[in-house]
Every structure is written in structure tokens, then in C-alpha cells.
Amino acid sequence: QVQLVESGGGLVQAGGSLRLSCPASGRTPRAYHMAWFLQAPGKEREFVAAIYWRGGETYYADSLKGQFTIPRDSAENTLDQEMNSLKPEDTAAYYCAAGGSVRIPALSRGREYDSWGRGTQVTVSS
Fold first, then answer.
1. Of all helices (H) and strands (E), which one includes residue 121?
2. Among 41, 31, 26, 48, which Cα is nearest to 123's?
């Protein structure tokens, strides 16, 4: 089982930037994906981005491409999320996830991931 703990959330003004961090510990599979999801108040969980850890291939939700990036630190086994030009509608709880058997066509689906962090809240004020 992989343990994930998100950090870096907080309150930021519209137009600002924030960087979230998610270190992975425990039994990480040799070939696994890590991803970020968000859940806005009253809405369903949404896919943000994912990375195939071994090869470094990244995948982004079309709506967030260019605004969010997911740099990784392989030495620290940490996946970050850089968020720029934040808007009030980006307010959400952000979750980190990991999975050892993620199918590429379905990597935007939460059920593909078997380890989740508890989330970190990001609030963007107008």
C-alpha cells in the first residue's frame, strides 16, 4: 500500500499561484501512475493530471492544460502540482492518488487508483 499526504493548500487571491506537494511512501509499485484530482463544493471529483512515474509521461485534463503542471521529484518520490492564474472556481479540495495498474484510456477515472491522500483545501478569493 502506498501512503500519500498532500500539503500546500491554503487561501490565495485570484490571479495568484500555489504549489501543492504529495510525497509517496510505502510499497510503491515499480511501474505506477500518480495523479491529482479535485473536488469542488457540491460537485463530483474531477481529474486534473496524471504521470506515469517510470517514463515521465504526463496527461492533463483539457480544461486545465497550461494552467496546472505536475512536476515530480523522483529522488524524493514526490509529485507536486503547480497552479497558476487561479480563479475562484478553482476552489476545491485537491487529492493525490496512486495506482499500480492504471489503464491509460481510463486514467482520468478515480477507480483506477488504489491509494489516496486525505486532500488539501485550496480556496481562491476574488
1. strand 120-125
2. 41
- CA gap 114, 125 in Å, rounded: 33
49 neighbors 58 (Cβ within 8 angstroms) = yes
For β-strands 10-13 and 120-125, DSSP reports them as parallel
Going residue by residue through the chain, which has 126 residues, state the pLDDT in tens, using 9 for 90 and above.
Answer: 899 999 999 999 999 999 999 999 998 777 799 999 999 999 999 999 999 998 999 999 999 999 999 999 988 899 999 999 999 999 999 999 999 999 999 999 999 999 999 999 999 999
SS3 10: strand
How far is the C-alpha of 93 from the C-alpha of 76, rounded, in Å?
24
